[in-house]
Amino acid sequence: MPHCEWLQPNERDNRRSIADAMDLLHQHAAFEGGRTVKIRIGGLRLPSQHIVGLVAVCAENAAAETAFIVTLPTCKTVWARRLGREDLEEFDIFQLDGATVHGNGNVELVDGTRLRAVELTPSLLPYHVTELEWCIIRHTIAFMGVESECRYLLPSERFCYALDCSALPALQDRAPLLKQIRGYILDQDPALEDLSEQKIADAMCKFGIRIPRTRRTRRLGSTAAA
């Protein structure tokens, strides 16, 4: 299995098109060795029940040691032109899942439709989630073995699954100890040796998996019983 290299993940929100991702892949010579560039879309179900797409452009090669990945802003739709036409059309983001991107930036969907000038319409999330927080949540769910409880099947021929955030708070009573989660994450990704238990707790709190208990405070003026 090739090692995955994420290219400039902190700049994700500044990218707006497939061409932006391709420019970055060209800068890192990601096309050497006959790599195929694919678009991968993951689903995220928000507390509002809306489903948005987590977008990644991946330069893959089964024989290569490294796969390059460029992420783009979370979105629900994209605007693009079909090859040979000038009018803009809106497409659901999940139509791009599995699409092939050619060196000139044109996109070929799995049904053979060819698009150019593909621009994303970013979706505003209820809160900002960092790449590290996503990593923590994915590892926590895997460690607990509850993937089947936390995903939502999209009605598509490709059987896309979305992370069902509304199901995560139900895991509170089964959440492992923070030190156990940290140990599992380090086993999977030793590069995260500086990850603190507090950071794990913060990420779990953001998704409702672990809600800190509030301490009861004595009201001013209260007295002990006589």
Summarize the structure.
The protein is an alpha+beta fold. Helices cover 20% and strands 29% of the residues. It has 4 helices and 10 strands.
SSE diagram, text form:
Elements: E1 3-6, H1 18-27, E2 36-45, E3 51-60, E4 66-82, E5 88-92, E6 100-101, E7 107-108, E8 114-122, H2 131-144, E9 151-153, E10 161-164, H3 178-188, H4 197-206
Parallel strand pairs: 1-4, 2-10
Antiparallel strand pairs: 2-3, 2-6, 3-4, 4-5, 4-8, 6-7, 7-8, 9-10
Helix pairs in contact: 2-3, 2-4, 3-4
Written overview of the protein:
- With 226 residues, this protein is an alpha+beta fold.
- Helices cover 20% and strands 29% of the residues.
- A six-stranded antiparallel β-barrel has the order 2-3-4-8-7-6.
- Strand 2 and strand 3 (51-60) form a beta hairpin.
- Helix 2 (131-144) crosses helix 3 (178-188) and helix 3 crosses helix 4 (197-206).
- It is globular and about 60 Å long.
- The chain starts with a strand and ends in a 20-residue tail after the last helix.
- The model is unreliable at 216-226 (pLDDT under 50).
| Distance linking N and C termini | 70 Å
Task: Count the beta strands.
Answer: 10
Proportion of residues in helical segments = 10-25%
Order of helices and strands: EHEEEEEEEHEEHH
Sheet of most strands: 6 strands, antiparallel, barrel
Instruction: Sum up the overall morphology in one term.
Output: globular
Task: Quote the average pLDDT.
Answer: 83
Order of strands across the widest beta sheet?
Answer: 2-3-4-8-7-6
Radius of gyration: 21 Å
Count of alpha/pi helices: 4
Which residue ranges are poorly predicted, with pLDDT under 50 across at least 5 consecutive positions? 216-226
Structural class: alpha+beta
Q: Assess the beta-strand content as a share of residues.
A: 25-35%
